[in-house]
Design brief:
- This protein has 2 helices and 6 strands.
- The longest helix has 17 residues.
- By secondary structure, it is α+β, with helices and mostly antiparallel strands.
- It has a domain of 75 residues: hypothetical protein PF0899 fold, CATH 3.30.2320.
- The protein is elongated and about 50 Å long.
- A hairpin with a 5-residue loop joins β3 and β4.
- The model has no long low-confidence stretch (mean pLDDT 94).
- Involved in the maturation of [NiFe] hydrogenases. Required for nickel insertion into the metal center of the hydrogenase.
- It comes from Mycolicibacterium flavescens (Mycobacterium flavescens).
- This is Hydrogenase maturation factor HypA.
- InterPro entries: Hydgase_Ni_incorp_HypA/HybF_CS, HypA/HybF.
- Keywords: Metal-binding, Nickel, Zinc.
Amino acid sequence: MHEMAITQSVVDAVCEHAAGRRVHCVTLEVGALCAIVPDAMQFCFELATAGTVADGARLDIGVQPGAARCRTCDESFELSDPILLCPCGSADVEVTAGRDLKILSMEVS
């Protein structure tokens, strides 16, 4: 389960930026094409934050849809899964969104 390693990296970054302050909430944006299961990440977050300044914090995850542009027909379209195929049938596509994982915000006190 790669979600644990990714979540641990997020928690490490959050705790570093919190600089000893208590973390109450972390908001992430996860691209639909990242192959990350939000529910698995929620579970891992509770484990990864245990004993840290983020222990007990809430994790809010928003999923950004994938998007691509076809190099054959020049159409832009949404991708809901990692199958990179344009509605015109071409596989010559450029992914333009949906592969990022961003820490959007965190609430600290």
